[in-house]
Write a structure and sequence with these properties.
Radius of gyration: 21 Å
Number of strands: 8
Order of helices and strands: EHHEEHHHHHHHEHEHEHEEH
Strand order of the largest sheet: 5-4-6-7-8
Structural class: alpha/beta
Strand content: 5-15%
Shape: elongated
Helix content: 40-55%
Length: 292
């Protein structure tokens, strides 16, 4: 059995810790367990229940009414809600994916994914469901709020879908602009880079995907062979010193712009050279490439 802290429950379900404490006092459905030091924690079943309740609350159901519903009624109502790929209800799909991740249920995850794709297309689904889901559960930047087994399960499942999506676009022909993707040395978290590669290829660029932990001594040769217009790296390394080392390695061998995204790339990040272009999210990447 997995156990979840209050912080994990708050993050995964979207229900605030303060609200959880009130519900525990007023309603019978939520009875967390406690450690010997009196710290509250929640079981797998309680975590799944709270994600379902979060979906119901966001779709107009009152908690006083939910308290009277059976587990079967809650499940059936939630299933009906998340089966509808409504354009303004992406959060329902994100929560449904979260539930599938916790249960390690590939069938449910794939069902939600394909329903959204069939209605709104693959790019829209990647941008507005898969990307928010990965951020929501912390998998994208290596700060997972799930247990390791669940993280590996969902990471590999989405990795498969991204690789299939990239392959489905086919080979870019003609005089397309070129971009090479790589992860820094010792970097293994690939989902952010794969997502960026899919987006860029969908925009009509020719991509060179070099994958994980690229030796820096290969950079000069890669630039020479690919004749790329841009480089891009996505890193979950938490230390700015390591990011600076990456920048130094790139700027030593080429003047090609480096698009850089990842954990520390935010409004406060200030690269020491204009050759480095911070990219905060997929939407900023799309805006930049369309204007390039």
């Amino acid at each position: 059995m997995s156990i979840y802290s209050v912080a994990q429950v708050e993050s995964l379900s979207g229900i605030k810790a303060h609200t959880l404490r009130i519900w525990e006092k007023r309603y019978s459905f939520l009875k967390p367990e406690r450690t010997p030091t009196n710290i509250r924690f929640y079981s797998d079943d309680q975590m799944r229940q709270l994600i379902n309740i979060g979906i119901l609350i966001r779709n107009g159901h009152k908690i006083s009414h939910i308290d009277k519903m059976t587990s079967e009624e809650i499940h059936d109502t939630v299933s009906e809600i998340v089966s509808q790929p409504i354009a303004n209800a992406y959060q329902n799909q994100v929560q449904a994916m979260t539930l599938a991740m916790l249960e390690m249920n590939e069938e449910t995850f794939t069902k939600v994914f394909h329903k959204q794709v069939s209605k709104f297309g693959l790019l829209d689904t990647m941008l507005k469901v898969v990307y928010p889901f990965l951020k929501h559960v912390g998998v994208l930047w290596g700060t997972s709020k799930a247990i390791p087994a669940q993280e590996h399960f969902v990471s590999n499942l989405i990795r498969q879908k991204l690789i299939a999506a990239i392959d489905e676009i086919g080979t870019t022909r003609g005089e397309a602009k070129r971009i090479a993707f790589f992860l820094p040395q010792k970097e293994q978290h690939e989902l952010g880079l794969l997502l960026a590669a899919y987006i860029v290829k969908d925009l009509g660029w020719k991509i060179y995907y070099l994958g994980q932990s690229l030796p820096y001594e290969n950079l000069e040769q890669i630039v020479e062979i690919t004749k790329c217009d841009l480089l891009m790296s996505v890193s979950v390394m938490s230390q700015l010193s390591e990011i600076d080392a990456l920048i130094d390695q790139v700027t030593e061998v080429t003047t090609i712009p480096l698009l850089l995204s990842g954990t520390v790339i935010n409004e406060a990040f200030n690269p020491k050279t204009s050759q480095v272009i911070p990219i905060a999210d997929p939407f900023e990447l799309i805006r930049f490439l369309k204007a390039y």
